Amino acid sequence: MLSDSQRYDSKRQEVEAWLNRMETRLDRMPPVGHTADSFHAEVHQYKSNIDILSKLTQQLVAVYQQDDTSRVKKTTEQINMRYNNLNSRYAVVPFTYPESEIHKNSKCL
Hints:
Blueprint: H1 2-28, H2 33-63, H3 70-91, H4 99-107
Helix pairs in contact: 1-2, 1-3, 2-3
């Protein structure tokens, strides 16, 4: 159990640190298209780590059915909610063109 718990805890710490960085980044991010696009790409690319953590949780729960795994399940649920909130908060960040793009596009009309 020690090895399984260590793998879970290591991945949990990695994911929580990433979520903290990304939440702070989103809070400070100006609503400019390129920045928002790179943010979305990073959130999308990190999904596999969220999936790995979920699989580790499922394995712990399955292998240690006799033990109380409620804390592990609750922690993973909270992490999944944070990831989903991060993803949905990004979706409502207004997209604005840089001033130069607005002028360039208006000349085409």
